Amino acid sequence: MAQFDLSSATAIWSELLEAFKSQIPEQSFATWIQPLSPQRLENNTLVLAAPSQFHREWIEGHYVRNIETALQELRGEAIRLKLNVQPGKTPNSAPPLPHVRDVTEKAETSFETHLNPRYQFETFIEGDSNSFARAACTAVADVVHRCPWNPLLIYGGTGLGKTHLLQAIGNRVISRNKTHRVLFVSSERFTQDFIQSVQTRHTTDFSHRYRSIDLLLVDDIQFFAAKERTQIEFFHAFNTLYQNGKRIVLTSDRPVAELAGFDKRLISRFDSGLVTNIDPPDYETRVAILQNRADVDHFPMTRDVADFLASNITANVRELEGAYVTLAARCQLMRVPPTLDLVREVLRCRNGNNSVRPPAEKILMMVSDHFHVPIESLRGKSRKKEIVFVRMIAMTLMTEWTNLSLKAIGNMFGGRDHTTVIHSRDTIQERKAAGDQEILNVLRDLQHKAGQFTPASGLSG
Fold first, then answer.
1. Is residue 94 pLDDT above 60, yes or no?
2. Which helix (H) or strand (E) element contains residue 153?
């Protein structure tokens, strides 16, 4: 095979995509495999373009072996994979963000929106934990006539992207119709505005302002709790907008059923529309967030560094981005490259102590290397006995050596349920307690390999 044409490469790659997408988790496929593009077929070597050096290294470290195996099965001959970096192919690169002044000028109105143009749908990294919430927000932003999902309420913990999505709705609506009156406020800002209007005897102006807009975006409604007069005013504003077919989008840190100290009429209104949640990002999404940010900033973050950050910071996006910003600042100010030692120091400083949790992804890679089983197989759907056994070992180590929740561990293995993690852990521990020599030897060998980490609780007998 001595071909150099793009058409052959494209045909082979299309075949591969069809066959390969069922072998790995959907989010992994979308994040890592789909962004690759065929360049040429050259003497039994398929040359692909990766959108960044980081992306290339990740593919080489996690997927090359499986892709080459799949290619051989499809074509009946060995085909090697070669990766080039072609930055222009980056699918997640954010478009240049408009300057705050530009948005104001485009709006051609003196109405103050309180929107931050930094928050766009294009800069929001989608994953399994937030895909439905993003789809709902996009639909609300794009609706032309009366919105069928009104109000839309998004709930979830701190730092998961609720405010980003809320403001992205407003920014998209204004970008498409500069005459629309859009207002983004926190519940605290609404309360302060109301109190000031009472003190200055301008309650009529306050009511008119909040009842004459086209899109109302209210962040953190849980802070309306126990504020009776504020709730009454918000109820009337809500009703007026709703009856006039205006869009209302709200966020909360908890489900509607857990909102205490609220008038029952408001609870009924909140529950009458579409309610969706955002969960903490899974591992793949955390890595994608770091990759996207590094690509946009042209920050030379290696795969090991991104892996370490994503494995150690699991709670929310805000904390993850904060660690990234701290790392990037240190590298820039100290004129040093990002290294694992430096990122460990960054996490120690941010945590205020001298301990860093063992990275879950390192455990996964270590177990994969020890048993010579590809990570993609551990995350995939295979029920082969030998793969199930290795997967159970990896899950057990993560429950012992990390502070990840059972759900988070399950997410690292293709979104498996937490009960699968519990079953794996219990099975391995029962065999260990029974003196199973195979299990004892495996755990001892893996503990030796992981000697650089300090387990939360030992696994040795």
1. no
2. strand 152-155
pLDDT at 359: 67
Structure tokens at 308: 């370490």
Q: Kindly report the CATH number that applies to the domain delimited by 378-449.
A: 1.10.1750.10
Residue 420 is predicted with a pLDDT of 92
Any residues with CB less than 8 A from the CB of 366 and at least 6 apart, and which? 446, 449, 450
Query: 283-351 domain in CATH 1.10.8.60?
Result: yes
**CATH number belonging to domain 6-89:** 3.30.300.180
DSSP state of 177: -
Q: Which residues fall within 8 angstroms of residue 450, CB to CB, at 6 or more apart?
A: 358, 362, 363, 366, 397, 401
Rounded Cα–Cα distance for residues 90 and 85 (Å): 10
Q: Do residues 306 and 294 lie in contact, with contact meaning Cβ atoms separated by under 8 Å?
A: yes
Distance from C-alpha of 137 to C-alpha of 170, rounded to nearest angstrom: 10
Q: Residue 51: its pLDDT value, please?
A: 80
Cis peptide before 151 (omega within 30 of 0): yes
pTM of the model: 0.57
